[in-house]
C-alpha cells in the first residue's frame, strides 16, 4: 500500500509556490510506515505490492469493500448540491493509494477534515492546472477530472500533512489508471486528475472517518 506524501521542508516551499501560481514542481515522496490505510480490503488485493504497509481499518471507518462504489458511467457526474460548499470543514488531501479488484481498479485519496464537499466528475479533453492553466504532464489518452467544492482554506491546512501535489504520481498499483495529479485547495476548491489508458466507465463516492474520495475504474 503506497502512501504519497512530501517531506516537511520541501512541502513548505512547494505549498507557498502552489498558492501563488499552482505550478510548483520537484515534489518527492516517501512511505510512512505508521500510516493506517483507509480501505483494508484493497490492501488484501493479490496485486498489492508486498512492500506496502498492511493493517486493519479502525472501527469507525466505513469501507467500500471489494465491490464497486456505484454504477459505472462514462458521462459526467454532479452531486445534488454542486457547487455548494456543503458541510465540509478543513478538508485537504493527505495520502493516496491504488489497488486492483475483480473487474475494476480503485484510486483512494484520503483527506484531513470532516464533512462532505460537493463534487463534479467528468472526462476532459483539456486538462490544465487550476488557476495557471499550465500543462499537467499527463501523457495518457484519457483524463478524468474530479472537482471538489468546499475544501479547506489556507489557514485551516497543516502543510506538514499535505500529500505530494502538482506533479504526476505514477508509481501506482494499477494498469488502466496510470497517473494521478493532486492539487491543493485553492479558493475552497480542489482539483484531481486521473490519467487513463482510454476513457473507461467509472464510479465515484465520498466516504467518512476519514474523508476519502473513492474512484473505481471499470476494467472488464
Automatic annotation (TrEMBL):
Residues 27-83 are annotated as: Disordered. Residues 37-64 have a biased composition (Low complexity). Residues 94-218 form the AMIN-like domain. Pfam families: AMIN-like. This is AMIN-like domain-containing protein. It comes from Enteractinococcus helveticum.
